[in-house]
Structure formats: C-alpha cells, structure tokens
Specification:
Blueprint lengths: L1 H8 L14 E8 L16 H4 L1 E6 L7 E10 L2 H7 L7 H8 L12 E3 L4 E8 L11 E4 L2 E3 L16 E3 L12 E5 L3 E3 L6 H5 L2 H12 L11 E4 L5 H12 L3 E6 L2 H10 L3 E4 H4 L12 H15 L6 E4 L3 H10 L5 E4 L12 H5 L4 E4 L5 H12 L7 E6 L3 H9 L6 E5 L12 H11 L6
Parallel strand pairs: 11-12, 11-14, 12-13, 14-15, 15-16, 17-18
Antiparallel strand pairs: 1-2, 1-4, 3-5, 3-9, 3-18, 5-6, 6-10, 7-8
Helix pairs in contact: 3-14, 6-7, 6-13, 10-11
Bound molecules: NADP nicotinamide-adenine-dinucleotide phosphate (NAP).
NADP nicotinamide-adenine-dinucleotide phosphate binds next to helix 3, helix 6, helix 7, strand 12 and helix 11.
EC number: 1.3.1.85
GO molecular function: oxidoreductase activity
Protein name: Crotonyl-CoA carboxylase/reductase
Length: about 450
C-alpha cells in the first residue's frame, strides 16, 4: 500500500497500473459478531465509537464493470451512523440478501461490513468491460450501485429493482484504503479541491440535487420559497446552495445561533432557529399540536413577507412532518428523503388534499443527477461544506459527532492521504473560491 501511496503523492499516476494491489487493506468496519451489542439501549446511547473498528480485510476480486480505487479521503454520512448503531436494522441483512443474487455479489456477504458511501481517490484497476476509466484517473464516486438487468431501471436508474447504496447496502465502502465500486459510480475529481474536500459532497450533494432541483424531485424554479430543515447539516447545506443558485428563496431552519450564522454566510437571509423559538410540534408521543404548526407557519410568513413555502425540503421525519405538510403553500410540494427522528409520519390529511399539496418521495440520485451535481462543484458553483476532518482511526468519533448532531456541514475522514490539503491541481481556481470552500471550517 505504501508504494501505491508514494506513487500518488509523487504524482506518478502512470505507475499505478503496474504496481501490485495488496491482498488486504485497512477499512472501517462493523462486525457481524457485534450486531446485537446495543440491544435494548435507546438510540442516543448507542455509541458508534464502540461499534466502528479499523480492521485489516481481504481485497475483493475485481469483477466486470468494476473499479478498485485507492481512497485518499472519505466522509461521514448519516447512513454510517445507522450502520454503526444497527438501526433501523443491521446492514448485514442487506449484504446477505445481495450476496444471494449472484456469484459475484456473494463477495459482499462477509462477517464484516466495510462502510462509507463517499470517496475521493485514484483508480488502481478496472475490470473487464470498463473503457471510460483507467488506472491513474483521479476520481470521486457517487453511491448508486445498480445492476440494470431489469427494464425498470432504464429510464431512471433509481427505479431499478436491484438498486443499492454502495457502502451501506453493499460492502467495500469508501471509509478504507481501498474501495470497490461499479465504474458507473465514478466521476472526475474537482481539480481545485483537496482530497477531503472532494470526498465530502458526493452523497448529500447528489441527494439534495435530485430532491430539490431535478424533475424527479421537487423541480424547483426561480422565485420559489424553499423551507429547508437542517439547513447547515449534510443535506441542508447543499439544498441551501441550490436554492440560492437557482433563484429561489431558502428559509433555513437550524438549532443554534452558530448554525444560523453559517446559513447567513452561505447567503441565506431568512433563518429560523428552531431551538430559540422552542417549537414543540408534539404534545406527547401520540398527539401533535396544530397551534405550534401555526406558530411556525406565522414565523415563515413573517420572514417571507407573507409567502408560504412552495417546497418543503424534508428529512427529519416524524418530529417535523406534520408541521411541514401544514406550512407548505397551497399546491406546494413536501419532498422527503429520510426520517431521522422516526419513520412513522403522521399529518393532518385535510391540509394536504384540500390545499392540493403533494408529497414526493426522493432517494439518492441517478448517475446523470449525481454527475450534474458534481459538475456544479467542479465549476465552483457549489462548494464543499467540510467543517472538520478526522483520521480513519477516529471514524467512530466522527460518526458520534454526527449522531449527536454536534457537527456542521460535512465531517471528512482521511484514508490514505497523510494530511489535509493535498490533491489540489488548480490552485488559481481554488484561490478564486477559497472563502466559500472554507466557509464551514472550524465552526
Ligand atoms: N434517501 C437518501 O438518499 C438520503 C441521502 C442523504 C441523507 N439521508 C438521510 O437524511 C437525514 C439527514 O442527513 P444529513 O446528512 O443531512 O444529516 P445531518 O448532517 O445530521 O443533518 C441533518 C440536520 O437535520 C436537523 N434535524 C435533525 N433532527 C431534527 C429534528 N428532530 N427536527 C428538526 N431538525 C432536525 C439538524 O439540524 P438542526 O439541529 O440545525 O436543526 C441536523 O443538522 C439522515 O436521516 C440521512 O440518513 C437520506
């Protein structure tokens, strides 16, 4: 592995094709033998620092249409939090089911799960049938793993019945020295970014792009008012940038003055600190409080000068969904991709049907959407939101921060990269955007 890293650091990328690939590598894992370790504990007490390990694992054999990538950096996504606390279920069930589908897929069914759904790195090997990429290419990877043998996926690959999230529903993810991806996950690394910056947008940027901008999601247009929950978080920090770039007006919801300040630095003018306002949408476990929905709606109107949101960018789920449906504009769209606070949502359906609102489900992004989202990063129109970077050994702590919601934007992880700041190829373009690139740093 050291020879591979030395070649990358020395910018001798042509040499990579002839350097041997090691039989094993270090990766961040959860172990099947530990999947019951948190049984009976409330979610908040399940500690990723106990379940995430750095283990030496066997390098998988390379199949057709695949690529093996030397990972310089990766990032924490909430799905790694879910995997590490074995909620809502252990991801070993995904690996086992995937493993049953073919001989090649059986590689993924192992007693450990190498996690991680983002990477920036360098292609080491490509499998048969891969022509678009070659060893030495500097890449990022999006996390849509799709088989595409079924007709359903051919208009929108997210509709393929064999669609999986790499590093969550498949093995050999990005929080490791090596990663196995399908070659149609690869995209060019933005040249002006360091490895850890380039690794951080992938999953959330693509998801927010589909959810908010794409016709497959809310199809945002100029002038729309967009209510964004968790606007300084992983998804929200990209949704806010898309809203601003697209001529919409974001109304950013956050939970602290520091997070509100980050939203303002991104250019958002309308920000609600939900903690300071003290919204209590639920009276108790069973009953919501419509007066609180109204109070929230009144605050939005106060900020917008009377407008309700054309689009509500939803992901907190149970705790906020009733309010989201209530405050959306007549004819508006609530677009949801997650349920962080609980997946059994309830809302007053009268507000949905009488006011002709729509609820749209959205999940990750197809290759085209991920490509377009990455292109915006490469063009300096959307910027990474890295606030903090950890080493691979500290991944448990990084996931713990995200689980506890004490992070901002994205949390990066160095894999092979020995330090931050490496991998920049276009320093001039970087300099032109440096303030935006560093906006979330150290907050
Ligand atoms: N379907 C997909 O393809 C997809 C893709 C990416 C992520 N996700 C899911 O989306 C969710 C968010 O991901 P993320 O990366 O944005 O996570 P994140 O970085 O933790 O950000 C989420 C933000 O949501 C806000 N939030 C959390 N709980 C809330 C609650 N009960 N009420 C109101 N706001 C709340 C928090 O912001 P404040 O505290 O500042 O309000 C938090 O910073 C996760 O469940 C993740 O698994 C799904």
């Amino acid at each position: 592995m050291q020879k591979i890293l030395d070649a990358i650091l020395a910018d001798e990328l042509d040499a990579l094709a002839s350097l041997p690939v090691p039989d094993s590598y270090r990766g961040v894992t959860v172990r099947a033998s530990e999947q019951d370790m948190f049984a009976g504990l409330p979610s908040k007490e399940k500690d990723p620092r106990r379940s995430l390990h750095v283990d030496e694992v066997r390098t998988p054999e390379l199949g057709p249409g695949e690529a093996l990538v030397a990972v310089m950096a990766s990032a924490i996504n909430y799905n790694t939090v879910w995997t590490s606390i074995f909620e809502p279920m252990s991801t070993f069930g995904f690996l086992e089911r995937y493993g049953r589908t073919s001989e090649l897929a059986a590689r993924h069914d192992r007693p450990y799960h190498v996690v991680g759904s983002d990477l920036a790195g360098v292609v080491l090997r490509t499998g048969p049938g891969v022509n678009a990429w070659k060893p030495g290419d500097e890449v990022v990877a999006h996390c849509l793993n799709v088989e595409l043998e079924h007709p359903d996926g051919h208009s929108d690959t997210m509709l393929d019945p064999e669609q999986r999230i790499w590093g969550f529903e498949t093995n050999f993810g990005g929080l490791a020295e090596l990663a196995l991806v399908k070659s149609n996950q690869l995209m060019p690394k933005p040249k002006h970014l360091s490895w850890e910056e380039a690794a951080s947008p992938g999953l959330v940027n693509s998801t927010a792009y589909r959810q908010l901008v794409s016709r497959n999601g809310a199809d945002m247009k100029q002038g729309d008012v967009v209510l964004i929950w968790g606007a300084s978080g992983g998804l929200g920090s990209y949704a806010t940038q898309f809203a601003l770039n697209g001529g919409a007006t974001p109304v950013c919801v956050v939970s602290s003055p520091e997070k509100a300040e980050i939203c303002r630095k991104m250019g958002a003018e309308l920000v609600i600190d939900r903690a300071a306002e003290g919204y209590k949408f639920w009276k108790n476990d069973e009953e919501q409080d419509p007066r609180e929905w109204k109070r929230f709606g009144a605050k939005i109107r106060e900020l917008t000068g009377g407008d309700d949101p054309d689009i509500v960018f939803e992901h907190p789920g149970r705790e906020t969904f009733g309010a989201s449906v209530y405050v959306a504009k007549r004819g508006g769209t609530i677009v949801t991709c997650a349920s962080t606070s609980g997946f059994n949502h309830s809302y007053d359906n009268r507000y949905l049907w009488m006011h002709l609102k729509k609820i749209v489900g959205s999940h990750f992004a197809n290759y085209r959407e991920a490509w377009e989202a990455n292109r915006l990063v490469a063009k300096g129109a959307v910027h990474p939101t890295v606030s903090k970077v950890y080493s691979m050994e500290q991944t448990g702590q990084a996931a713990y921060d995200v689980h506890r919601n004490v992070h901002q934007g994205k949390v990066g992880v160095l894999c092979l990269a020995p330090e931050e700041g490496l991998g920049v190829r276009d320093a001039e373009f970087r300099a032109a955007h440096i303030d935006a690139i560093n906006r979330f740093r150290g907050v």
